[in-house]
Design a protein that fits this description.
Elements lengths: L14 H13 L3 E6 L7 H21 L3 E5 L10 H18 L3 E3 L7 H14 L4 E6 L5 H8 L5 E5 L14 H18 L4 E4 L3 H14 L3 E6 L4 H9 L4 E7 L3 H11 L1 H12 L1
Parallel strand pairs: 1-2, 1-8, 2-3, 3-4, 4-5, 5-6, 6-7, 7-8
Helix pairs in contact: 2-3, 5-6, 6-7, 9-10
The chain binds flavin-adenine dinucleotide.
Length: 278
Amino acid sequence: MIPPIANNFVAGETAPGALDHVASLNDDGVKGILNLLGEHYDERQPADEDADQYVELIQEIDKSGLDCAVSVKPSQIGLDVGDDVFVENLERIVAAGDDHGVFVWVDMEDYTTTDVTLDAYERLVTEHEGGVGVCTQANLKRTPEDLERLAPLPGKVRLVKGAYSEPEEVSYKKKERVNEAYRDCLELMFEEFEGGIGVGSHDPAMIDYAKDLHDEYGTDYEVQMLMGVRDDEQRDLAAEGIPMWQYIPYGDKWFSYFYRRVRERKENALFAVRAVLS
Ligand code: FAD
């Protein structure tokens, strides 16, 4: 069982528990993006099993009538086993999403996986006329060029700052430089995309910048934040009428995800310590 302190960041170990969380979010106007925790499988069986679980989850989301998408990591559905395994499993998940009217996001992992992830996305989003989204990372120097390639496609693109420690040749390392790159990429998206922009950030400065760009260009966008991070702000943005999606991890592999959230911010660590002491 997940201890209460981790419940802030992870919506339980099972799909029904995660769907209950989405139902309460939907009541406040916030939509859900469910992520079954798991990554870097080096054998085919667990990758296929997680893909099966996504297909079942998509069926359950459809039955529930909830406003909810899913988000999947390439290495969770076989990328470390082989590109073909990843593409085959992603195809299955996207086809199920298409059948059941559930949107499928593809997370982005480290820079060595960008090409294969974008290639798979480009093919599937074209075959399925939207219904799929992909994440791009502002800390990678290549991203503006990738965004130019993605602009004419249907589907959606989530822009994040980037969570992986990448080599200097391919990425910006300084926080200020990453923030500048994030603004530049956002501007490019609002200028060139017809919609489908996902602002994946908790940063108030980036959210405000997106609002300004929306006023200037009129392009539609949504904001995406993680469960347990600025939850009140998420509800406030939804109340303002901005499409707000919460990324919600769940599943039995919750410990390493929770540990990452606690390590990345002093406030999260203090919260965890207080919860243990009380
Ligand atoms: P930061 O640059 O970390 O912080 C900027 C400001 O935001 C802070 O000064 C503070 O005001 C506010 N803030 C940030 N965190 C908190 C907090 N915990 N509590 C209160 N205020 C806070 N990365 C990938 O590489 N691939 C992915 O597929 C991916 N998917 C993501 C999906 C979503 C929905 C989100 C939100 C992030 C995703 N990320 C992904 C992670 C992302 O790359 C960043 O590492 C992460 O979002 C931190 O950057 P930030 O823009 O939120 O803010």
